[in-house]
């Protein structure tokens, strides 16, 4: 083996040439992840090292380097002279777990050998005992002193202990610091700060962090942040009008709204004569009629898309059933016109509108939203089956807007985000991030697009306090 100088824990400068021909071993290169997982572990003298690159330079000889993880498992990083022993710690190396209570104590090993046929084991009483003091952290690592969040990036000061293997971050919904109940924010141990959250939870959450040592001990206390991570940002913002949720504004003919808010056709009435006439059918005859329902008919009020939606794609999502069902639409036509207030009406007050809308036509899969306004009509024919409409939603793919406001101070009584005033027609989603402060949460009280959203920051007792936030607002 060639010499190997002292290096950094992640050594990208030094390399070493090794000779494994005595064991006829073959070495393969790995990846950065293999180094992280110690899949390429080796013993050089008394230092454990994991490598990334192994280049064959001669039969049984390899140039090892690229990235060396030095001082693994609490071994000392040291310089190595030419000719020191090199062992590839592969699957032939025996490993066993030990009780953490043995850390710092001396244990003894006896190694018996076999003959070339796997038999003739030495008597254990005849071989020497080799003492070994198990090294490792005693007790738990120190707690993380501070924990911060900015957007989707978490940061914290490192715990100054040699045996730290990384940090474990968990979260709970709302304000809840119970570590045992919390869910991991990622799979595994995070090596260092900062860390960008890959899948960020929404709403009010408690984020917690503990240091983890090389044998799995965690800090006794978790540092935590209670943050309102806000709404989930959408990949695509839509302007939506749900006619069902708005109680089907418009005209209903032979149609009612059931307990579930759906449109259903009314049942046709049976016919009767006066009571003193005799029956015109035999009393024990089968029914001479069958259940019947009127045709359903709903005509919506005129609906106008917002000004920012004009020229964008309009789609209607619907679910309905009925005999000869028709889904139609028309534009409302020209605007109404007016005379001065003192003029008499030139039409009867109970007459139909005197302007002529466009004719009804079948509803296509997609329209370009216009400014004249739309009416929709759903009809079916009389049938012995019920006609229903369970969903009718107009949605327009509007141009998305994102606005970032940094370092905004919010007073204890709450303030509006004035920087967002009149920037949006509609605000859909807001994410707030508290900077390092006595506040533990920030809440959005309203999403007023003209004045700007109203925000308040609160401490652990839900009392308003002054705090500085960053805001990310999405809308159109």
Provide a descriptive summary of the structure in words.
The protein is an all-beta fold and 476 residues long. The protein folds into 5 domains: 10-88, no CATH class; 100-133, no CATH class; 148-228, Sandwich (Immunoglobulin-like); 241-397, no CATH class; 401-475. It has one helix at residues 32-36; strands at residues 10-11, 16-19, 41-44, 47-58, 61-69, 86-88, 106-110, 129-133, 148-150, 153-155, 164-173, 183-184, 195-196, 204-213, 223-228, 238-242, 250-253, 255-257, 263-265, 297-300, 313-321, 326-331, 361-362, 367-368, 374-379, 388-397, 401-410, 415-416, 427-434, 441-446, 454-458, 467-475. The strands form 8 sheets. Strands 1, 2, 3, 4, 5 and 6 form a 6-stranded antiparallel sheet that branches.
What attributes characterize this protein structure?
mainly beta, six-stranded antiparallel sheet, 5 domains, elongated, 1 helix, Immunoglobulin-like, 476 residues, 37% strand
Short description:
The chain is 1% helix and 37% strand. The chain is an all-beta fold and 476 residues long. Mean pLDDT is 83; it is low at 334-340 and 345-349.
């Amino acid at each position: 083996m060639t010499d190997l100088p002292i290096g950094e824990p992640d050594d990208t400068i030094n390399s070493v040439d090794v000779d494994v021909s005595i064991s006829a071993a073959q070495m393969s290169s790995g990846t950065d992840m293999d180094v992280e997982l110690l899949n390429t572990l080796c013993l050089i003298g008394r230092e454990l090292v994991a490598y990334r690159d192994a280049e064959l330079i001669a039969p049984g000889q390899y140039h090892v380097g690229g990235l060396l993880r030095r001082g693994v498992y609490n071994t000392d990083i040291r310089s190595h002279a030419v000719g020191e022993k090199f062992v590839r710690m592969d699957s032939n190396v025996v490993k066993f777990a030990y009780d953490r209570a043995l850390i710092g104590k001396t244990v003894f090993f006896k190694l018996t050998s076999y003959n070339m046929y796997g038999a003739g084991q030495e008597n254990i009483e005849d071989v020497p005992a080799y003492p070994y003091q198990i090294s490792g952290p005693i007790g738990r690592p120190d707690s993380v002193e501070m924990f911060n969040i900015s957007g989707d990036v978490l940061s914290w000061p490192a715990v100054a202990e040699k045996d730290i293997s990384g940090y474990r971050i968990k979260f709970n919904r709302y304000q809840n610091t119970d570590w045992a109940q919390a869910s991991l924010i990622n799979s595994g141990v995070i090596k260092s700060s900062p860390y960008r959250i890959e899948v960020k939870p929404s709403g009010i959450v408690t984020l917690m962090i503990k240091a983890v040592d090389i044998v799995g001990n965690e800090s006794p206390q978790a540092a935590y942040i209670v943050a309102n991570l806000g709404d989930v940002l959408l990949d695509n913002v839509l302007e939506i009008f749900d006619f069902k949720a708005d109680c089907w504004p418009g005209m209903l003919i032979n149609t009612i709204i059931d307990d579930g808010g759906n449109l259903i056709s009314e049942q046709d009435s049976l016919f009767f004569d006066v009571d003193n006439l005799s029956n015109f059918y035999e009393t024990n005859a089968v029914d001479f009629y069958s259940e019947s329902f009127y045709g359903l008919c709903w005509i919506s009020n005129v609906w106008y898309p917002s000004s920012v939606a004009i020229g964008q794609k309009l789609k209607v999502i619907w679910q309905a059933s009925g005999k000869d069902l028709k889904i139609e639409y028309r534009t409302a036509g020209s605007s109404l016109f007016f005379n001065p207030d003192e003029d008499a009406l030139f039409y009867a007050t109970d007459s139909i509108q005197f302007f002529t809308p466009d004719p009804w036509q079948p509803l296509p899969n997609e329209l370009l939203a216009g400014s004249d306004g739309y009416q929709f009509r759903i009809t079916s024919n009389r049938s012995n089956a019920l006609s229903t409409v369970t969903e009718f939603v107009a949605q327009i793919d509007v141009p998305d807007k994102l606005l970032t406001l940094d370092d905004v101070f919010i007073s204890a009584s709450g303030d509006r985000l004035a920087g967002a005033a009149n920037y949006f027609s509609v605000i859909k989603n807001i994410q707030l991030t508290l900077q390092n402060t006595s506040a533990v949460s920030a809440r959005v009280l309203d999403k007023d697009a003209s004045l700007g959203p109203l925000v308040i920051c609160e401490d652990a007792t839900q009392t308003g306090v002054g705090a500085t936030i960053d805001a990310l607002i999405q809308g159109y």
